[in-house]
Structure formats: structure tokens, C-alpha cells
Amino acid sequence: MSFTAVDYGTMVMLFILVAASLAMYFIKDLLHAVIVYGAYSLIMALVWLQMNTPDIAITEAAAGIAMTVLMMVVISRTSRKEG
Amino acid sequence: MTDFILKRVAALLLPFIQMYGLYVILHGHVSPGGSFAGGIVVGLAFIAFTTIYGLKKGRAKISEKATALVESYGTLWYGLMGMVGVFKGAPFLANKIAGIDLGELGALSSGGLIGLIGLGVGIRVSSTMITLFFTMIEEES
Predict the structure, then answer these.
(1) Gap between the Cα atoms of B72 and B70, Å rounded
(2) What is the ipTM for the molecules in this complex?
(3) pLDDT tens digits, residue range B54-100?
(4) Which residues of A touch B41 (CB under 8 A)?
(5) Residue contact B33–A55, C-beta within 8 A
(6) Among all residues of chain B, which has the CA nearest to that of A58?
(7) How much is the pTM?
(8) How far apart are CA B31 and CA B49, in angstroms?
(9) Is position A17 within any domain?
(10) All structural domains of chain B with their residue ranges
(11) Cys-Cys with A61: which of A40, A45, B36, B104 at CB 3.0–4.6 Å?
């Protein structure tokens, strides 16, 4: 199978990934950052599915949910604001 | 939390979530998925139970001793399954070289040792998730 350029849907999703990563870095409210991380994880799972790796997509979805829950627990135990 | 609807829906859904996790673990070598993803799903079922029903009932379901035992013996199970290849005169974790029957295509038993190894990895990952969650939620704030 030869290399083909990614289609427009995947390209849009990749741009969303970049935007979400930058947003997670700049957002000061940690709860909002965790919510953005959840969206990032969902889009990442869809990208894996588009690239014909369904097993990695399942792992990404499950691990994304797990990490979101664990970070929520950490925020509930510590401060919500950064710094 | 004393939400009636939440508790009833969780009681209906959580067995199916655990069943799905075990399915993903056991079918890791013949279908998409794997022991890591399935283990996380099984662990998340326990985490959801604890967040809905409270810390005391969650700890009653799976105690600290049980998670420690499952974690240790999951790793030991992986090592033992790897040593099967060594005892047969082949490298560590060897499957086909060691002469183990690979089964038939599409059947659950196909893949020799891989399914058994996946079971060990799956329960170990799930108990790791549970341990992480309980370590954070039981800490005094």
C-alpha cells in the first residue's frame, strides 16, 4: 500500500488536535484543561480509527477516559487554579 | 451521593461494562483490542462503582489486599508463561518455536500462550488503575 495524502476530514481533526494541545498549555483553570483533554482524547481516537488501527483507537479511548477521571480526582484533592 | 437514578442505571450497566472488558481482554489476539485496553475498562467499572456508591462500599468490593495480590500474581503469571518457552528449550516467551499448538484461525484458543499472557496483563492493568484511583481518593485533603 503506497503512501497517500491524508483526506480533509483527518486534516481537520489533526488541526483540532494541535489547537487542543496549545489550549491545554495556556488555560489557567485546570478543570477546563481536563475537559479540553477529554475532547483531545476523543479526536485522537477518531484519528487512530481513520489510520486503520482500531486496537490503538480502543486503547486511546479507554486510557483517555481513565486519565480524565484520575485528573479530576487529583483536582478535587488539590487546588483548581494553576500556580 | 444519594441519587436514585444514577445508582439504578449504574447497577444495570456495570456488569455489562465488566463483561465487555473481559471480552476485550480474552479476544485481544483475534480481534481489535488487547489486554491493556480491556484491563483499563475493567478497572474503570470499579472506579465508576466507587464514585457512585461511595468509598466505603467500593472498598468493600475490592480491598487493598486483593489489589496487591492480583498485581503481584499477574506479573508472576506473565513470568511463568514466559518460562514455558524456556523449559521447552526455546527463548523466553517463545510460542511456536517451543512447539505449542497454535490452534485454528479465528478461534479463541488460537495463539497458544498469547491469550493466557493477555489474561495476566489485563488483570494486572485493571488492579493498577484501581490502586491509582484509591491512592488518590483516600488521601487526606
Answers:
(1) 6
(2) 0.79
(3) 888 888 888 889 999 999 999 999 989 888 888 888 888 877 776 67
(4) 62
(5) yes
(6) B33
(7) 0.84
(8) 28
(9) no
(10) 4-137
(11) A45
**Which 75-134 residues of chain B touch chain A by CB within 8 A?**
129, 132-133
Measured CA to CA, the distance from residue A56 to residue A67 in angstroms comes to 16
Please provide residue A65's backbone torsions phi and psi, each rounded to the nearest 5 degrees.
-65, -45
Number of domains in chain A: 1
Please indicate, yes or no, if residue A3 is contained in any of the structural domains: no
Domain coverage including residue A37: 27-83
What residues in chain A have their Cβ under 8 A from chain B's Cβ atoms?
54-55, 57-59, 61-63, 65-66, 69-70, 73-74, 77-78
Give the residue on A whose Cα is nearest the Cα of B31.
A55
Residue A81's DSSP bridge partners are A29
CA distance B120 to A14: 35
Instruction: Pull the grid cell for residue B74.
Output: 499477574
